[in-house]
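ok here's MAM and LDL-receptor class A domain-containing protein 2:
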Amino acid sequence: MTFIFLQVTFTASQKTAYRLGGAVALDDIELMPGLCPSRKKNAMELCTFDAHDCGYTTNWKSSEKWEHKSRLNSSSPISAVPEEDHTLGTSYGGFWFSFKEKGDMGTQTSFLRTPIYKAPKTSMNCLQFYYIVDDSGSWFNWYRSTKEIYVRAIINYPYSKTKNPTWLITKVQNTTISEWRYAEANVDITEDYQFQFTAFIESSKEVVVAIDDVKLIPGRCPETGFCDFEEDICSWKYGEGQYKWDRIRASSKGIQK
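and the structure:
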């Protein structure tokens, strides 16, 4: 009988970037037989798009498609593309985006589709994601115009002969500043399904539509304004004043500012 001894080495490195810092920690390490389960086939797993594209697919037409910005590509030649993702809040995070370069007024529609997922155990679920719809772009956008920009979410049932595609989120419109915003929709799922995100752009400006942190959770969506602050601050904003709020994780005895 031959024994093979293995050693696993974890290496922590620091890139030269003033925005990155802090500590690196490891916990709950386990080596199990067999292949790792695919996270691309589970809509209940949070898709951060940092390590991979979560199995999403887009248009074949190169001029009207979504692109995956991964952590391996920390910059983009397109000025309108967000500098930071929602998950990490750094340029090293990932997300999906669709863009239109400046030029003549015209329309552009691009589609981003998830893998086909198995029907969940509970029929009522909540689709959650963060998005940016922005036409601020570079400084010379001021003399150009925008008629309409939005992103929509739809659910398809590829194997069903009776269920039709259903709009989950009618429209989330462009904003005056480029920041990640939260969107959610209740969805009743009883068959195998697939989500589709549609970006519509009608503008002569340089425009970008982006999504990040897509997840399906069991049950109905929380009421408007609800936040348990377990994962983040739910797009709440810190106000002006003498004192400042901090989000504390009791389990780690640390403070996330």
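+1. The radius of gyration is 21 Å.
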